[in-house]
Amino acid sequence: MFKAIDEVVRIGCKALYFHGALVDQAYAEQDGEKLRRWSAYARAAGVPVGVAGHASQAHLWVDSLDIVDFHAVCFFNCGSLHVGLGEKFNLADIFLATEAIQRIQKPCIAYKIMGAGRIDPRMAFEYALERIKPGDVVNVGMHRGDKEDMVAENARLVGEILDVKASAHVSR
Questions:
Q1: Domain membership flag for residue 126
Q2: What is the pTM of this model?
Q3: Is 110 found in the same domain as 73?
Q4: What is the predicted pLDDT for the residue at 164?
Q5: Which residues touch 61 (CB under 8 Å, ≥6 apart)?
Q6: pLDDT tens-place string over residues 43-64
Q7: What is the CA radius of gyration of the chain?
Q8: In the chain, how many domains are there?
Q9: Which of 94, 36, 41 is nearest to 68 (CA)?
Q10: Which domain, by its residues, includes 150?
């Protein structure tokens, strides 16, 4: 990991996070010391450090260690893909993920909010944007082979949702 950190720092990264499968494994092994060493090494290079993770419990555990600057929280605990157990997208995971995001005081990046295309985009954006904290963001992967104007369409959709939220907030 130290070589990887050195490499991304050398090429100019502005922040980094540790891959969800690695964080899930550290959580399963309760190996906070490994994450602590990696985080300290990256921070010593002047880089903000975060963790990704598939299980919301892993994020709450890392948060209790107070060793990272941000969290990338997956809406679905689909880490089974990384250990060869196939796809696993359970709707109950969304509630656990947003609960973790709300409990974690540090900035969060919500990802896989559409469950790899399983959730309607409007529903996914509305739900995510209602439940993340101010200053948090969503990161959405898109396969433009499915629809050429998907990026513009999703940007318009988010704009509409945020306009509605802003006008509802002003009218209160």
A1: no
A2: 0.89
A3: yes
A4: 76
A5: 27, 30, 32
A6: 999 999 999 998 899 999 999 9
A7: 17
A8: 2
A9: 36
A10: 144-172
